[in-house]
Amino acid sequence: MKRLIEKGLMFGNLIRVDSSAWIGLYNRALKKLIGRETALTEFHIDISGYSPEIGDELGDMDYLAPDGGNRYFILLTTEQKTAPMLNADLSVLRDVLRRFITENESQLFSLTARDAVIGEIDDQVWQLRSPADLPAIRHLRVSADTTGNHVAEADKLTAMIEQFRSDPDAWWDDVLIARMIEQAKKSGDVLRHPIRLDHTDFEVPDFWTDRFGGTYVIRSAQEPAVIFADPDHEIEVEGFLTLTISDRHALAAWLARNALAEPIINARGADAAAILRQKIDFILADAAVWLCLDTGNGTRAELRRAAARMGDDLPAEIRGLSALQRYAEQGGDWPVIDSGDPAYFHALRATSGPARDLVNRLLSELAPQDVRQLFITHKPLFYRLYQDWPDAKRAYVANMLAREYAMDKQGTREALFGPEPDMAEPEPAPASADPWGIPRVSLSKGVVGPWGRASGGAG
């Protein structure tokens, strides 16, 4: 992992904490949350205030996520909104915390000027005993206050003020007036400087969790589904279609029926030929490493020369992706690519909509040789697989990501996946449209179904 850290591909964009004031506030917050403190004089924190250095010091890499409990957070500054979230067991946690900070920024700015803000992200589900409990996660609620309880103290004074205003006899209530004066010493002038966090509840229609071997819950689709990465955890979930990552044909059909994915070659604004060439490069580089073939600096020409030496070991995905690339560049007959073809999921990207990022994450798990998409959309799986790769592949991947992604993250994401989806509801497709849209387009022409012919086996 050291190579990734040095290139800014792991633990990047964290907030540096090196002042005695911030360290004191952090320790005060940590003491209140978990009863422990850090002796470090410098460390880095993510959007939730989690520090990998402190995790290593305490011997607990999940010290802000107690086993079976809600995720705690510590805010020292509103600038944490730009940082990543490490060790997230729920894919939406960073987005929810970022929105919480953004939508309450003026209040949080005032609070963090005097104290650390601490809190938790509550999924409002008491216990997750089986995958059948996951659909109960529909909303996340953020509860927050300073270590000095400034928000709670302000709420007390606000309640007294409301009582004073609404009770016609309050002018003669010396006890109430005395309590208000005393409370104002703790909370300040809440009329001129109100302390109230209004945006604390967030809907969660779709998410991925690392629970039960890795599980996707996609509720926003017309046909809601729960998808298991580990078949051993698969159970029926009421009201949901249940699938596993190995159900290639069923997954392809579900993505098509619900218009959740589209062929890259037909995606609006995508340079399909360039994207397909890059995918071929990644697959060849992976195969060359495992076959112990020298690829020099991993240039496209060197990878093609290595491919010529692979013979029967040439990856099965190459034939389909090369056919699609030729079609994108030269036209001609549409390649026949069905869901049994190893190239199939490499050739798709998610359509715009609320589940776009989650579907791209699912596609990266179905086609993990595309290490760039895997890194962008599914970092937990990327880091886990990275540890078992040969050093030659680690070096190639780290250098490629530093060169082709880290230099322009936003531009790369838009080139691969399209513009970020807006908040508007997508317009429903006309009844005559097939799942790929109008005109009818599929990866395979002349066969039944927009996902290709149903061939046997899982592929």
UniProtKB/TrEMBL annotation:
<feature type="region of interest" description="Disordered">
    <location>
        <begin position="416"/>
        <end position="438"/>
    </location>
</feature>
<dbReference type="Pfam" id="PF20343">
    <property type="entry name" value="DUF6638"/>
</dbReference>
<protein>
    <submittedName>
        <fullName>Uncharacterized protein</fullName>
    </submittedName>
</protein>
<dbReference type="InterPro" id="IPR046578">
    <property type="entry name" value="DUF6638"/>
</dbReference>
